[in-house]
Amino acid sequence: YLAFLADFFSDGSPSQSSSSVGRDLETELHSLSLNLREETEKRRLAEEDLLHMQNHWQNMAKSLSQLGLSFPLDCHSVNAQLETDSAALCQEVIVLKAVSEAIERSLTQAESEAVINEIINSKNHGISRLRDRLLYYETVNHEMTQRNQEIRGLARQRRLRRKRKWKLIWSCIGLSFTVGASLLARSYLTDSSTNDSVTTSSAAAAAATPDALEQAA
User: Which chain regions cross the lipid bilayer (predicted)?
Assistant: First the structure.
C-alpha cells in the first residue's frame, strides 16, 4: 500500500512527528519481540532442566527399587503442571503476536495517513501557487487590455485631429482659390469697364472734332 502511494504520487514524505511516533512504535515492538524471545528461551531451558530432573528422578527410582525401596514418582502432577505452563506460554505467545500485529497495523496506518496528509498539503500548496499565478496573469491581462484601449483611444484622437487639420488646410486652400478667382474676376471686370470707358471717350472725341473744326471755319 505504501509502495503504491509512493509510485502514484511523486512528492510527499512523512512529517517529523509521524517519524518520531513510528520510531517509538518500532522500539516498543522490538522490545516486545526481545522479551518474547527471552521468555521462550527461559521456557526452553526450564523444560530442559525439568526433563533432566525427571530422568534423574527415574534413575534414582530404579536404583532404589532394586534395593527394595519404594520411591514414588508423581508423573501425572508433573505432566499436568507442564501442560499448564505450556498452555500459558502459548497463550502469551498468541497475545504477544496479536499485539505485535496490532502495533504493525497502527504503524502502517499512521505512516499512510502521514504520507497522504503530506501529499495533500503539498498539492494544496501547488494549487495555491497556481491560483496566485492565475490571478497575476488575470491582473496583467486586464492592465494590458486597458492600456490597449487607451492606446486605441489616443490613436483615434490623433486621427480625428489629423483629419480636422487636413480638412482645415483644404478649406483654406479652397477659400484661397475662391478669393483669388474672385479677385481675378474683379480685376478682369475692372479692366474691361476701363477699356470700355476709354473707347467711349475716344469715340466721343472723334465725333466732336469735325464739329469743332466746322465751327472754327
Answer: 168-189
Q: How far apart are CA 107 and CA 109, in angstroms?
A: 5
Q: Enter the pTM of the model.
A: 0.34
* pLDDT grade for 113, boundaries at 50, 70 and 90: confident
Is residue 46 within 8 Å of 82, Cβ to Cβ? no
CA distance 53 to 91: 26
Residue with cell 505467545: 93
- The 3-state DSSP class for residue 83 equals helix
Ordered alpha helix ranges (H), the chain: 2-8, 16-66, 75-216
Res 73: pLDDT: 52
Q: Is 34 left (phi over 0), alpha (psi -120 to 50) or beta?
A: alpha
**In the chain, what are the domain boundaries?**
2-121
